[in-house]
Design a protein that fits this description.
Strand content: 25-35%
Helix content: 10-25%
Structural class: alpha+beta
Radius of gyration: 27 Å
Distance between the termini: 95 Å
CATH topology of the largest domain: Beta-galactosidase, Chain A, domain 5
Largest sheet: 10 strands, antiparallel
Number of domains: 3
Shape: globular
CATH class of the largest domain: Mainly Beta
Number of strands: 36
Length: 650
């Protein structure tokens, strides 16, 4: 009898352990304010989901990878270890894109997983819940064979409920300069054939906004979005390695590798996303021991106005004079300064015969201006030319490099970016990438990576009618969520839509006040001003370009909607700068100023006039008193804008 009881007990215990072995395990992590909740289920399939204020943001969504020459990792894991941490810290960025102090506050869940059956590989995954979004990333380890592991597909899915509005940007493939419009569609527009870029903004309705993007891309390809064939089932589309097909190898790694953070920015208004620092928070602290040489600011530029570069000493000196007169610290010498480019003969250490680079640098220094030089990416890479050129530039006194025409974000190109940025930092050079992929917050770690393109920006006024005011407004809600963008504002030949045509010099179809507002709204710590000295100096509104900063201590979203208008206030020291950018419909708006401390203020403004609809260069400068508790009423012309500077009265 006793033996029977003992055997029965063993059978029950074995069955219980077996049941626990197959039973799914749930894990949760919530944001510090408890509004966002992530749920992870470890079962036959590893899945995750997310809610915001008890509203489903993503339904049950897949996690994992497929590989070449090894089984997929999708589920059926044992949990080897877990960790739950809260981090609440404040850090000070070297380059103040939005805030002089950034709070990094999140709850974090870490899971170390191991397959229950052969080959019994391990994988780590970390989830972070912030008050303004979530992020997660994978940690992949070495395999049993001493060879590269090869990822063919990331299985991460974002199962979006319903059919929210989405702002979709399509670049036509993976090899791209990422210069196109964000167009509004229902989410169901996206299919398995879509290759959508990011940030990917969605309006769920009823005060719920979400944007998908990624952060800290290193030794890994970037990803785009499509579906897995089911409507609303967004899935990651990793960029294939060069020469690989769509279903081929996306990444190779011999050592441990972390994926980029997969990020969902979440808030009850688009302003929460615009104000967010989550992308930089997900990057490592500054890697430069003494970054005091990094100086943001404005730059004159010798390329845009003419349609082509005038690589001549008098022209270059004219732009240096412009920078000096305006108080800007830089002048960008664009292509052809070293003669032929993108050819085997190109030499980025020698200047073209018609110019004298030492004389240019010395002349600029006498005017308190420093020089940035343009480079073609192939000329930088050929024979590792940058390793010789960058120390030489530092000896010359060059401040930075603008490198162009990469047009890729596969694993190899991502690693190339890192090589260039590190070498530039070693030689105290700023970096401005053009033909570039979206920012990922690397400016926190490498603040010399001060801006980049990856935007349908001001140069398109030269040869395209795609630069609508609606597009410019949407950029603040979409592309700018990822970070810095070298839009190159400052076109002062402002005309109506009907007057605009492709010509030299370049015309811009918005009002002068709208053009000024881009300097406040668009984020670029190195802001490159596009127009010719004769079009800027002593022209209405040029005085604003002498005082507007390029870095900021605080930011407030004041109102707007993608494609309609955007109003943003940014603080520099004790002053607040307001920028408003409008679409093609004139309107009157009311913006709050309750972000101001109690007191009385003076408002200096540059605004549209009653004539601006037909005469876009017409602008009114005004000084008025302002109370902190009285909203500001502003009339915007069609294609119009507004800028203002608020100072407290003593």
């Amino acid at each position: 009898m006793n033996n029977f009881k003992f055997i029965s007990a063993i059978i029950i215990l074995v069955n219980l352990l077996s049941f626990q072995n197959v039973m799914a395990q749930d894990f949760t992590v919530t944001s510090p304010d408890q509004n966002i909740k992530i749920k992870i289920i470890n079962g036959e399939q590893l899945t995750w989901s997310c809610t915001f204020l008890n509203r489903m943001i993503t339904e049950s969504s897949a996690l994992g990878f497929e590989f070449k020459n090894e089984p997929a990792m999708t589920g059926n894991f044992n949990v080897i270890s877990t960790g739950l941490n809260e981090i609440n810290e404040i850090w000070n960025p070297v380059v103040k894109s939005k805030h002089s102090e950034i709070r990094n506050h999140f709850n974090e869940l870490f899971l170390l997983l191991k397959e229950k059956e052969s080959p019994m590989r391990e994988m780590g995954i970390t989830f972070r819940a912030y008050n303004d979004g979530i992020a997660f990333r994978y940690h992949l380890l070495r395999g049993a064979k001493i060879v590269d592991r090869q990822i063919t597909r990331e299985l991460t899915t974002f199962a979006i409920p319903g059919d929210p509005k989405a702002w979709v940007v399509e670049y036509g493939g993976y090899s791209t300069s990422q210069e196109s419009e964000f167009k509004e569609f229902p989410l169901s527009y996206v299919t398995d054939k879509t290759i959508a870029g990011m940030p990917f903004l969605m309006d769920y309705g009823e005060n719920c906004w979400v944007a998908l993007t990624e952060a800290r891309i290193d030794n890994f390809p970037a990803f785009y979005l499509g579906t897995n064939g089911k409507s609303g089932q967004l899935t990651t589309k990793l960029v294939p390695l060069p020469g690989e097909p769509e279903d081929g190898v996306k990444a190779r790694f011999a050592d441990e590798v972390f994926s980029p953070w997969r990020v969902l920015m979440i808030g009850n208004s688009p302003g929460t996303l615009i104000e967010s620092d989550i992308i930089q928070n997900l990057n490592d602290p500054c890697a430069i021991s003494d970054p005091s040489w990094i100086r943001p600011g404005m730059s004159a530029w010798d390329h845009w106005w003419s349609g082509e570069v005038k690589m001549e000493m008098p022209v270059i000196k004219q732009y240096i004079d412009l920078a000096s007169e305006m108080g800007w610290p830089y002048m960008l010498v664009d292509w052809q300064w070293y003669g032929k480019f993108n050819t085997p003969e190109a030499d980025i250490t020698r200047w073209a015969p018609q110019i004298n680079m030492p004389e240019i640098i010395a002349y600029a220094a006498s005017k308190n201006v420093r020089i940035i030089v343009w480079l073609y990416s192939t000329d930088v890479n050929r024979n590792s030319a940058y390793k010789k050129a960058f120390p030489l530039y530092h000896q010359w006194g060059v401040a930075g490099v603008k490198i162009d025409f990469m047009d890729r974000d596969d694993q190899q190109m991502v690693n190339w970016y890192h090589d260039i940025i590190r070498c530039a930092a070693d030689n105290q050079l700023l970096v401005n990438f053009h033909g570039a992929y979206k920012p990922d917050g690397i400016i926190r770690t490498w603040p010399n990576m001060i801006t980049r393109e990856g935007v349908l920006g001001g140069e398109y006024y030269k040869f395209s009618d795609r630069m609508s005011p609606e597009h410019n407004v949407k950029l603040a809600f979409t592309r700018m969520l990822a970070g810095q963008m070298d839009y190159t504002p400052g076109g002062f030949l402002n005309v109506t839509r009907e007057e605009w045509k492709q010509q030299v010099p370049t015309l811009v179809w918005n009002t002068r006040a709208a053009e000024l507002s881009k300097f406040v709204i668009f984020e670029s710590p190195l802001t490159v001003v596009c127009d010719h000295p004769d079009h800027i100096l002593n022209q209405p509104g040029s005085d604003f370009l002498k005082i507007v900063p390029t870095t900021w201590d605080d930011i407030r979203f004041l109102g707007g909607y993608p494609g309609d208008y955007v109003a943003i206030a940014k603080r520099s020291g004790d002053q607040w700068f307001i920028g408003i950018l409008n679409n093609q419909s004139g309107k009157q708006i009311t913006i709050p100023v309750n972000f101001l401390p109690a007191g009385n203020y003076e408002l200096e403004s540059w605004s549209d006039t009653k004539k601006s609809d037909k005469e876009p260069t017409d602008i009114q400068k005004k000084v008025q008193k302002l109370k902190f508790d009285e909203p500001l009423k502003i009339t915007l012309a069609k294609n119009g804008g507004y800028v203002g500077v608020i100072s407290k009265l003593k």
